[in-house]
Write the structure tokens for this entry.
Amino acid sequence: MTAADAHRTIETVWKIEAPRLIAGLARMLHDVGQAEDLAQEALVVALERWPRDGVPDNPGAWLMTTAKRRAIDLIRHNRMRDDKRTALGYELEAEAMAHAPDQADALDDDIGDDLLRLIFVACHPVLGRDMQVALTLRMLGGLTTPEIARAFLVPEATVAQRIVRAKRTLAEKQVPFEVPRGAELAPRLASVLEVVYLIFNEGYTATTGDDWARPALCEDALRLGRVLAGLAPREPEVHGLVALMEIQASRLHARTAADGTPILLLDQDRTRWDRLLIRRGLASLERAERMGGADGNYALQAAIAACHARALRARDTDWKRVALLYARLAEVAPSPVAQLNRAVAVSMAEGPQAGLALVDALRDERALASYHLLPSVRGDLLFKLGRLHEARAEFERAAALTGNTREAELLRQRAEACTEDR
């Protein structure tokens, strides 16, 4: 294996294992900042050794073992300053964890998941909402600061400051590494749901990189969503989010060609959609609606996804209902992105000119100034109207704005297709 191959392997392994690694270390150290630092140190060691010695058979376990050994060294060092008995207790706990089998995926009870614990720690009330979401996406979503900035449509420096302040605040307040119970659960649930939702979205359509999707993130988000449904079974929005993720995840295998090229929704082979996930998603949506949560943010998005899932052919989609649902979503959770999606649905139901009028009304929205889907949608509508020169310019602008290699390539191809002799 060449050094370049080893580095690509390390990058892939890191994206998959980093959240579990940080969560396991946070359980040992009770400090998410130190946990991330030690995880990064293990990554540095891997970058030094794997190109020379080869990638280990179980790279995730190798990273965890390396990081845990460093955590034990840190605990032993801290023993020099702390109460000896307390430090010894931590050391014995750490030793046991280091030699115990990895239980990161165990879900024997409602607090049996390190990842879930870490989400609730990152969403503690001592943090503002922006800090909660940014920190958890960094810790559990495995996202870089630029990726989080793109997800939030804010400057990178803003996200970096939020993450630093969040870790410092958690350390200063000595927030316990646990899932809240009873009356403490509900206030923190909304933040947790938002984080899981954003993690899933990053997996479904990656903001950067060479892959259009990162299925491992979707799987983590789905698993956490299902755990949350068991933890808060009477909360309709939990089931709404699970429904949304199940239905969206059903399309993952149909969203890319064998070579990784993106396949847009209307062009997908719907026989490749996972009907089991669709049935599970529809059942979760029905549960949310039965609990009176039909107007919840996630339930409404799930209802939109259900319109697509129920249509065996693209032309069978009930676009009028989709447009109505997006209009309601824009009322419940006002967002220019929801309005943009509504414009797409209106264009499908009433024609591209009707959709273009709605899109043009969004062109001055500051939050969409660097959002690549705005010029992408506008380019598509202009193309359908035969305004090819304008469409080409919009597709080129969208390609320049996206950080995803696959998506940029698709948009450039669409720009090239805007010729008068088509």
